[in-house]
Each structure stands twice: as C-alpha cells, then as structure tokens.
Amino acid sequence: MAFHDSPPPLTPTPRDEFRFRMSPNDYDDGLFLLHSAIAVGASHDSRERYPPPRCHQNTREVVFDIVLAWTANTLHGPRVLWVHGHPGSGKSAIAQTVAEYCARGGQLGATFFFSHGEGDLSDGRVFFPTIAYKLAGAIPELRAPLSRAIQSAPSLLGQPLEVQVKKLIVEPFRSASREFASPMLIVIDALDACNGPEMQHRILTLLAQLVIVHHLPLCFLLTSRPTPHLRATFDSPIFRKLTTRISLDNFTSNADVRHFLRNEFARIHHLHNPSMRGIPAPWPPEDVIELLVQKSGGQFLYAALVVKYVEDGAGNPDERLRKVVLAAVSSSSVSAGFTPTDQLYHHILSAHPDPAALLRILGPLVVLYAPLPERDLELLIGVSAGSVQGTLRGMQSLVDVPNPDPTRVSPHRVRIPQASTAEFLVDIHRALMFWVDRGRYHAIMVQGCIRYLLAMDGAEYINLSSYQYVRRKWIRHLVQATPSPELLDDLCELRFLYSRVPSEVRLVVAWLKGIPNLSHDVLDLWQSWDTQLHPEIPLYAP
Question: Does the keyword Repeat apply (predicted)?
Fold first, then answer.
C-alpha cells in the first residue's frame, strides 16, 4: 500500500507561525491568544522534532495494515486504537508515519507528541488547548466559534481540563456547520510521558467522553508503554468497548530489523565515501548483520543505537562497527548479565577519556525539566564555555548536541532524546560507574539557579535566555535535591526572595524539615520569613 512509501521531507516552521492561513475578515485575537497557551513543539511537523522518527520503508507492514484497517472503520467501529510496547519497539515512529499519511489524505485533525520531562511536552495542562488549536487548523468551521469562546473568557486557558474540553472542543464542534464523512484522527504519542498517572487518567476519561457522551466525529490513535495504571484504565469497561489494541511486543520482527540495518549501513557507506573508499559494498558482511539482528531481539532500540554510534562523526564507521561487534561477542566481567543494549551503553560511555567530566554534563541533562541552550547549561552547572560540545564529542549516539549554526535565531538546546538512555543512567545496577545520582545533580542545578538569582545583574547572566526556567524550576530541583552544607549555605543567601513568592517559602521550609539532624540556623531563618508572610499562623514547633 502507499502507506509504506516514504513521505516527502517536512519543512520546519518558525515557532510563532500560524499553522493555517486566515483571511483578513477572520482575523481576531482569540486564536492568537490560544496560540500563546499551546505546546508548539508537540506537533508531528514541529521544528523541535525535525527530523522526526519515522518507520523505515517496508518495515512494520503487518502493524500498518492493522492501523489502516482501523482508520477505515472508525465510523462504525472502535474509536480508540491503543498501540503499546516497551522502549525501542517503534511506537513514536509508527505514530509519526501514521500522522503524515493521514495528513496527506485529509483525515488528520491534530497531533500531540509527549516527551519525558521536556516542559510543555510533558504538561497535560496544555494538551487540550493544543488539540483545540490544531483542530481549528484542520477544520475551518471551528475557527470562529473557538475564537469567540476565548475572546469572551480568556481565563479558559487556565481553567480545569474539564472546562477546557467543553468550551474549546465540544461547543465549537456543536456550532460548526459541517457534516463529516468519517471521524477526524487525533494522534497522541507517548501518553506515559505526560506528567503523572492522575493526569493521564483524566485525559483518557475526557477523550472517551468526547466520543461516548458528546458524539464528536473524532477518533484517537494513542501510543504508550504498557504501564500498570494505563493498563488498568484501558481494562475498564468503558475503554474495553471503545478500544482496539496492538501490542508491539507481539510483533517482534528480525526481518524488519535486518532490513533496517542493511539499508542504514548502505546509506552510511555511501555518505562516508572518503573514509569508506577501500571497503567494498555491500558492507558490512552478512554474518555481522545477523549478529546484530540476533542481539536486537527483534526490537529496534539496539539496532538504532548501533547505527547512531557507527555514524557518529568521530571516527571511521567501519572501525566503530568493529568495536561494536567485538563488544557484542566478548563477555567481560563487567558486561556479563547485561542486556545487549546495556552492554552497548557501557561500550559507548567507557570510550570517553574522562568519565567524571562526562557525568558532570550527563547528570544535569538527566534531571532537567526542559532542555536548555548550551551556554545557559554551562553557566548553571559552572563549567567553562564550550565544555558541553567538547565533553560530548563522540556521544552523539546518546545525546542531541546540535552543531553550531550562526544563522539560527533560537539557541541550540542539548537533550537526551531517548527516555531509555536516561533510565539506564539512573539505575545504579545497570549503569555502575556511570550511575547518575539524581539527588546530587538536582542539588547542582539548584545551586546554579541560586547563583543566577543572586547575580541577575552580572555580565554573564544578564543575557541568560532561560530566565523563566530558573525562576519556575529552581524549587522543583530543590525538593528533589540531596542536602549538602554548600546548598544550605546558598539557601541562606536568598533573602530577597521570600517576600515575592510565599508559596515557595513554604516548600523550602517543608524540605528543610525533612532533613535529619539539621542545624536549626537555616530552618529558623526560613521559618522566620514564613512567619513574616503569615503572621496569623503560629511559629513552628522546634
């Protein structure tokens, strides 16, 4: 089917650009106000996701045939398709390819690609405003009633999800004069990355109500890991009647992985022609392909990591592949008992000449609540300019480190793209010497935020583009931080802060009271500030 053809390349669009055109008569402030409250980077065609993960041509054909059959039958069949699988099973690639296919056919209404710990991309509060905005782009009849709703009550964008759904989606659909031949598709990827089981359950419940209670012409493709709380929700009576399921773990395919590896290695051989000139095609030998297929276990996580590592700009691809093969066939005392993917993680990380310097960068990247520009990250963690690029050289298979581009308007943001990589790093039994102690690195981030808050007029910090991150997230880092004498000393310096943010003062006091054997000096100081803000509340008991 044409579904498996490679889609045309996406063109990244500016952050502030409307995704649809309006005539002058339609122009008003409502949709612009809505645009300010959405997660721009959550769309399948956003610049932040470019280039997005896609299914390799001629892979996952059985899964796609099932998805196509479901999309063709949503008018009379189940309106929800839940595609679930463990890390590396290809959930996001499937969601992306389905979204692009349905967009070309005019059936796509909206998309939201969640991402673990990345600001708006993990915030369920912006989910329905974003979906409403995207639906207005796909369905012109929704624009006027949606805009009127926001103009008449701008506070809608800060109200509970249930109110947002009614005012931003249900009522505009009821006002729209359009008949739908078939439901419009909404693609929601990585729902398990949304902030918390309770928020995920609320979103699913409201999506079900859109179909069951309000009878809107919508259908939903959802992907996620098979977490216990999501399983419980989809096992409930309402969702059992509403949902079709695909477990990608039942579709492990050595043939797909083999096809992927052959094509990717052929591409690398062609692109790296100068360094690969003496190596004949096809490359590598078939026995190497088979070894990697066997190690992958029919899943793409290991295979994709191998390809990224081999293609990393630092070194000859054939030499790097030889190292992967050697690591795969050897069984050291360190790697024994680990999965092939964990063995590969260890191989990549162990090649770094300075593991301590590497962890100084990786640790903060793991605990960040949203990606930061490269220089801002360096300032906050107290390393010299250029340290991020220099330290992460050779780590591009694990970390997104954009190459410097002087023509780019927005700053480069560094991030760990795969949640499975971060999960490896924070598991001491898997990562061993590369373990990231989250409490320690949260403390480092807090101290960096405090330095910034205390020195906002300093030359280094005045141009920091991440002010909003520092201002909003420092307290979140604090409550997860491991206490240290240095951190407690820094907290005593924030005298200017307490009168501005009383709610944060209370959070600091609660965190301090949870520290065993704490010296009373710092606790007394913050409790005194809290008492000044709330004189009607008695002093804390010692």
Answer: yes
Q: Is 210 part of a structural domain of the chain?
A: yes
Identify which of 417, 435, 469 has the alpha carbon closest to the alpha carbon of residue 93.
417
At 265, the amino acid letter reads F
CB neighbourhood size of 241 (10 A): 11
CA distance 500 to 533: 10
* Residue with token string 């301090």: 512
- The domain in which residue 423 lies consists of 355-482
**H helix or E strand, kind and range, residue 477:** helix 467-479
Rounded Cα distance between 453 and 408, Å, is: 28
Report which DSSP code applies to 191. G
* Best CA proximity match to 453, nearest among 501, 416, 419, 524: 501
Quote the tokens at residue 441. 């690195």
- Is the CB of residue 83 less than 8 Å from the CB of residue 221? yes
Instruction: Enter the DSSP assignment of 223.
Output: E
- pLDDT (tens digit per residue) in 437-488: 999 999 999 999 988 888 765 555 556 678 888 888 888 899 899 999 999 9
> Does residue 12 lie in a domain region?
no
- d(Cα 410, Cα 301) in Å, to the nearest integer? 30
Same domain, 428 and 282: no
User: Is there a contact between 434 and 411 (Cβ–Cβ < 8 Å)?
Assistant: no
Q: How remote is the C-alpha of 366 from its chain's centroid?
A: 12
> Does 11 reside within a domain?
no
pLDDT per residue over 186-212, tens digit each?
A: 999 999 999 999 999 999 999 999 999
Nearest CA to 398 out of 265, 321, 303, 309 is that of 309
Length of the chain: 542
Q: Which of 316, 335, 350 is the last residue of a domain?
A: 350
Query: pTM to 2 decimals?
Result: 0.77
